[in-house]
Design goal:
Layout lengths: L5 E2 L5 E2 L2 H11 L2 H23 L6 E4 L3 E13 L1 H10 L7 E2 L9 H7 L8 E7 L1 H4 L13 H30 L2 H6 L1 E4 L2 E7 L6 H8 L1 H7 L1 E2 L1 H9 L5 H5 L2 E14 H24 L1
Antiparallel strand pairs: 1-2, 3-4, 4-10, 5-9, 6-8, 7-8
Helix pairs in contact: 1-6, 2-6, 3-9, 8-9
Length: about 280
Amino acid sequence: MKKTNILNNENDLVLIGAARLMEDIFESGLYRGMKTVEKKLDCIKKTIRKQFENGESKRYELPHDVIVKFVPSPVYETDELGLKEFLNDYGLLPQLITLKAKTFKDEPDILVELTPFQEPMKFFAQFYLNSKGKLHLDNEEYFYEDSIELLAINFLKEKSSFENDQKKYKKIMGEISACPFLRQSRTLKSTYGTCRLRSKDVEFNTQSVYNELGSEFLINYGQVSLKSLEDFIAKGYFSSRDIMKFRKVIDIKLRCVVMEKDKEIKQSEFFHQQIMRKTNLRRFA
């Protein structure tokens, strides 16, 4: 597709829209600063994990109200076919299945057949850095002392910086994704590389597919949405025990979470509200 960058002369590129915004992200130092802080934060978390991973407790309180928790994260093996047949028996298969184009990458004829059921496409912007852009990547290695006091201080400092940078970055990326020049051309060049508008994985309306192609098609090609499944459990359509007949825990990994104490309290309150909401949903279902 035609590119919309404008040449002033043979060597000068006039930067417009998303390309200008991309330039600003690099020249302001935002991109490099965000990547540097991200590396530092990752290093701090790894250092903290090494300090406590062999301890007897699953929760530790550090100085300055920093919390370290080791949270069990089950790994499941799921009988997808059995689960989808179970959902179909309940008449809920279309509501709890997703159908994505990537499933049919080796079956183009089916993709053509599904075209009438395609959901509106969603897009996001992505940078492809050239040699000049890659100079803004942070290749430094960072190391932190094992002092719990200093680790807590550095965690709070870098986390605050990272969140501020990410907020600015996401705002600009939203503006870039909405840029009419980028929407038209899909590609814009800048001093630091290329900005491209990429489409998210195409999805299809499962209810329409079910109506036209039947349940067998969704059973063969669809994927169960676990998030939607949890909502339907909360509404009392079936129990967690019903679903666990099709899911087997094959491993439990411990995920190390580092956070501020006030965030832990807010998270706990949120989970409590979710439990109450699900209880009410089940009561009035």
